[in-house]
Amino acid sequence: MLKSMDGLAEKLFWSSLLYMLKPLFRILSVGPTPNHVAFILDGNRRYAKKRNMAVGNGYRAGFMAVMSMLKYCYVLGVKYMTIYAFSIDNFKRRPEEVQYLMDLMLEKIEGLLHKESVVNQYGVRVHFVGNLKLLTEPVRVAAEKAMQATADNTNSTLLICVAYSSTDEIVHAVESSCQEKWNEIQELNANQPQNVEETKEIRELNQIIKLVDIERHMYMRLAPDPDMLIRTSGETRLSNFLLWQTTSCLLYSPKVLFPEIGLRHLIWAVLHFQRLFPHLEKKKQL
């Protein structure tokens, strides 16, 4: 009963807050609005250490910040939001920390399936991006259920990068493209009589794999390239995140730790994007 009352109170709070913020978001929307915003969730462990709390509480605070950003981005009109939740390199951390993160991930993914969850309230499609076979089976199954359950949501898309690195994504895309091309060539050869002159179609298939072939096999193929990438803690490194997709992307680096990120940081990021928008567009056309 108390949990139900707390959930109702939180829902009313957010509804009231977002209603009051709508005029501000309308003003921001007069200028160009980023269609896709990506986040590197930097600083969860430092946040916990700074406050003398368990590391797990830092990650939980980071999850709450993700949900807040999702709500703000939705009202602002951002159609795609991507978060770097768990890198392949994170598997190198202490086994107990990795296990805690897997357990926390499972808990939060299952929470997304609830009717009153943020993704269902706002009609958000959830897609997990990365080498999902590296996840524990319960987490992988839960991720697949969440993707299936939200597949018909069309208002916006939340992409969660787990067991992800950009180099792994590129290698996967190249290998898949090569395999696809080889299968096509084998199929065409099988359908041709012996000693028949090579057709134009076969010659084209034997050419170097095209850019579009590789991009079709990228983990991030469901979303356009990000317009803006926000990395907290004041860091300006991409840390093997979306290296292929961020050629013309604005990098914004507020000094706050990720659990501390709030509306004002997002507003400043959007204003920064709007100020540099003509320059960014010119770069894309080169």
Automatic annotation (TrEMBL):
E.C. number(s) listed in UniProt: 2.5.1.-
UniProt keyword annotations, A-Z: Membrane, Transferase, Transmembrane, Transmembrane helix
GO BP terms in the entry: polyprenol biosynthetic process
Enzyme superclass (EC): transferase
MF terms (GO), sorted A to Z: magnesium ion binding; prenyltransferase activity
Source organism superkingdom: Eukaryota
CC terms in the record's Gene Ontology section: endoplasmic reticulum
Family: Belongs to the UPP synthase family.
PANTHER family xrefs: ALKYL TRANSFERASE, DEHYDRODOLICHYL DIPHOSPHATE SYNTHASE FAMILY MEMBER
Name recorded for this polypeptide: Alkyl transferase
Annotated source species: Nicotiana tabacum (Common tobacco)
